[in-house]
Write a structure and sequence with these properties.
With about 425 residues, this protein is α/β, with parallel strands linked by helices. Helix content is about 50%, strand content about 15%. It has an eight-stranded mixed beta sheet with strand order 1-11-6-9-5-2-3-4, with helices on both faces. It has a two-stranded antiparallel ribbon with strand order 7-8. It has a two-stranded antiparallel sheet with strand order 10-12. It is globular and about 55 Å long. The C terminus is likely disordered. Keywords: Transferase.
Length: about 425
């Protein structure tokens, strides 16, 4: 059972009573009558063939309060898109699959690229951005949740608790960030959050000094959680990164656009496990190594926009400060693991800290060498201003794809194209 401590400038909604999930779902059904709800699922095609997503879809069938499910599909050819249409057709809720690699959406992306208004690189950020545009285009949902498609411990209670803060008419929250303990299979996981983000924020508070943004970021119990929810009006003005800085970028944008009393974090799961990324000690182009660089750059860029000045000397001091704090955290987590009968590999934990420290310097040097780099995807309000009918273009493209390639089983169990 969680405690009731409020640890910072953002409200924490705990799981104090292990409330009956059926009771909460029924309450959400009543909220849905006045505040329709939607869900964004950013997915790679490979996840349709994994263990997690089939289980998620099976459990989602019982969720009655959802008005809309939007699936962003990446890395899929035509046959794979057709398979995805059939795969998600079991959902009883209204749903559409955005074929991000299809010719219609690619053509729209090319138009936006010419105007400098499209995401610069593929990835989760790009996928989520187009899904947000489609949500705005359709107007079917007022409260929207987003969660990953690789959650191995998925229960519908996660979605219930994630949506509740922005769906309850008595609450004034515009945004809710999910959190949970990253414990599974007898181990403490979540290395990037535990060993990079938390000690880096502490180190920045020592080197940069007190600022509201760092206090705000330090309030989040799990800042890298891929699960969050928001009111639809949030989508218009938010700018998100296209790289691994997505979660940090979203939190930074919410800090920029809203007062902290309109934001909260909510306990959504007792246990949580998903696909684990490789540490990638020998390459900065993938895995946790690239993730750590992108996240570090996101924090540095945000502080620079608030007037902080950085130099090579600053980053060397920051690296040393971070390294000492992070090593202390390794011992803290080891003791926590022992106390709870869990395992923690000290050697691998310290290897991760060493890599993160080196990558912090890489992130800092990249920032100094490319000060005009703008990884944020433009807000939808800016895109709409430049291309007034862009949302209808996206909605039309998605619907035409669906109508042309929707595949269903005929009476003989074979595919028939509608």
């Amino acid at each position: 059972m969680a405690d009731f401590y409020q640890n910072g400038t953002v409200t924490t909604l705990h799981n104090l009573s292990q409330r009956d999930s059926e009771n909460m779902a029924q309450e959400l059904e009543s909220f849905a009558k006045v505040r329709p709800m939607g869900l964004i699922l950013p997915s790679l095609f490979s996840e349709l063939e994994g263990k997690a997503l089939p289980d998620i879809v099976e459990k989602m069938k019982s969720v009655k309060y959802l008005s809309q499910v939007v699936i962003g599909l990446d890395r899929a050819n035509l046959e794979q898109y057709k398979h995805a249409l059939q795969f998600f057709d079991q959902l009883p809720q209204h749903h559409r699959v955005l074929w991000n690699d299809g010719p219609r959406l690619r053509a729209i992306d090319a138009k936006l690229q010419e105007l400098g208004l499209a995401p610069k690189e593929p990835g989760k950020g790009r996928n989520v951005w187009y899904c947000m545009g489609y949500i705005l285009a359709t107007g079917k949902a007022e409260s929207i949740a987003l969660h990953d498609c690789d959650i191995l411990t998925y229960e519908t209670e996660l979605l219930d608790r994630l949506l509740y803060p922005v769906a309850n008419p008595l609450f004034n929250y515009e945004f809710a960030k999910g959190f949970y303990a990253r414990v599974a299979n007898g181990k403490i996981n979540g290395r990037v959050s535990r060993l990079l983000v938390t000690p880096l924020i502490k180190a920045l508070k020592k080197t940069v000094g007190h600022c509201d943004y760092l206090e705000y970021m330090d309030s989040f119990l799990y800042p890298l959680a891929g699960e969050f929810s928001f009111r639809r009006d949030v989508l218009t003005d938010i700018r998100i990164p296209s790289d691994w800085g997505l979660e940090i970028g979203v939190l930074s944008e919410m800090h920029r656009n809203y007062s902290s009393n309109r934001l909260c974090q909510v306990d959504i799961a007792a246990t949580y496990d998903h696909k684990h990324q490789d540490l990638s000690l020998n390459s900065t182009e993938g895995g946790l190594s690239k993730m750590s660089i992108d996240i570090s750059k996101a924090l540095i860029r945000k502080l620079a926009t608030q007037g902080e000045t950085f130099s090579a000397e600053t980053f060397r001091t920051l690296k040393a400060t971070y390294y000492r704090i992070a090593l202390d955290y390794v011992e803290t987590y080891r003791n926590d693991a022992i106390m709870n009968g869990l395992t923690l590999d000290i050697h691998n934990e310290e290897k991760a800290v060493e890599m993160f420290a080196e990558n912090l310097l890489i992130a800092g040097n990249t920032f100094l060498e490319q000060p005009m780099d703008t990884p944020f995807i433009p807000s939808w309000s800016r895109v709409i201003s430049a291309v007034p009918d862009i949302l209808s273009q996206i909605a039309t493209a998605v619907e035409l794809d669906h109508q042309e390639f929707q595949a269903t089983y005929n009476s003989k169990g074979a595919y028939a194209t509608n």
